[in-house]
Specification:
Number of helices: 2
Distance between the termini: 211 Å
Structural class: mainly beta
Amino acid sequence: MEKTCRVVILKMLMINNFPEAPLLLADLLEFFVFHYAPKIPTIDQAYSKISNSITVEWATVPGATSYLLTAKDGNTVIETTVANSPGTVTGLKAATLYQITVRSISPAGRSQASPPKQAKTVLAAPILQVSSPSSDSILVQWEAVYMAIGFSVSIMQANGLGRIWKENTTNTSLTFTSLDSGTLYTIKAYAWNANGTPGDDSTCNQRTSPGTPENIQVSFDSGALKASVSWAPTEGAFNYTVMALSDSSRLSCSTAFSSCTIYSLQCGTKYLISVSASNDAGSSRSTSAVTLKTVACAPGRVAIQEDPPGHLSVAWSNVDLGDYYVAFVKSDDGLEVHCNTSLTQCNFLSECGFTYFISVFAYNKAGQSPLGDVFNYTTAPCCPSDINPVLVSSDRVEIVWSPVRGAELYETKAVDGFNVVECNDTAPACTLSALECDTKYNITVYSFSEVRGSNTSCTSQFITTAPCSPEIKNISKDDFSMINVRWRSTNDEATYTVTAQGEKGRHQCSSTGESCTLGGLPCGSVFSVTAVAETPAGRSLPSYSVPLETGACCPLGVKLYRLGPNGIRIHWQASRGSANYSTDLYGSKGIFTCAPSAGLSFCDVTEIPCGDVYTVMVSPVAETGLKLTFCPKKIYSVTCSGSTLGMVIYRGKRNVE
């Protein structure tokens, strides 16, 4: 009650700013400490089990709510408040002697320090560095520990199975051997001092490195140039690495499983394959190398020749690791042949006009080489064999043939001695023009392709052009209406035919010489005369035409008229083709003749005696002046009557005035 009153009075003095409150407060505190502070604790014992702390035990002080532990080392003081005994001061230095005191604390304040007690911290724990230099050993290393004269190290499997190894040493390293590979171990170590007191222990885990993988199997994929490698799983392995070493390359693959694939292998190469396992402790030794020979590389320097035509030779270079070779030849019609050889050359039969696709592979126990370059070779196009002349004239030959395989163009040549006539076309036909007539030509049709050029082995044949056209030199007519035609020609052994074509028909004559005679041509007609030559090779072109007009007609409607006592007029109708006429009257008293003026169709005879019978003939006159006497004759009687007109009597069917 008294304590409560004093506290209330003190609060009131402070609230009312009593000027002498501080002095009164100090007086009150001295009173409280003397009459109400807790009692001083007594330390029972102080000891160290951990190198950075000391544990203190003391008897409980009534009324104390907590305790203040103090550890002093020279000028260094470390304090810790705890709730009850025992209590521990931490943050201390290892292997160090400390003065330990305890104060009790209550709401009324804290007590004076207890009588001091000395305690020394134990040795520090060794700082371990562990590793697994091999799959059956673990190396433990540490630095020297202050005040330590020896160390104890123990090891056991982390799963608690198996035995425990424990070793004492004054060194700072220790190796445990004959351990299981790939196994996790727990390592524990501590130091002790001259009194044999153990210090802090240090604990860590370390796994041994894995053992070497066993039962290595290698499978090679020749198509993809990859190798699949498998092995038996290894205890404690986290990862596996496969190495493929050759003289020129180093390939690898890694996996957490028991198989792995190495890609991008080189053809024609020998590899040494090995496998190693690894975990957080390190890697195992590599397995004994397994030898892998990949497929050979595709043969190079492929050479293709066709000599002679129809025989294809394929040659190539030798390759490393190649045991034998297979050459494939496939034509563009789908037919494929091959040859198998240990040499570097194969021979095949070939045909004209084909494109052959050629590939060469090398083989060994690993399989077939990769596909190399595919070569194509086009043989010369085939030669036309059924050349057929469809038209042969004097200056032109038209020939046709069946299309042949592989030909893109045809070249036709006609040779006669030193002269060459040619034509080129994509069609299987050719017209050779501007040829010489009646000439024997050596004609060859060559097939051509852009890739291979001309097939120069095509055979030729002889074709003779039709004969030359004759040249009409002269047309002559005789007195008997016969037409003689003469010509000139250079043909050998030709038959010539002359044709006179007119409105009244066609007339012909033939001869093997240089002339022939046309007969029976109607008079007064116009003809076009041509000549052609013919030989076994054909007919010539017609010669240039020559016009022909026959004389050779007699007048029509001949009549006589009396002109006075002694004159007669003879009148007629001129026939076609006649220009000049001559008139003759034959009587017992003489022959009387008259010729008309140019362009007239009558003439007059004077001083002709009457009373006589006359034979009258009007005859055409040829250009040569020759009188043609083939016209019919008519008989007239001329009477004498007293009249000057008289009478002219036709003694035929009727009288004509």
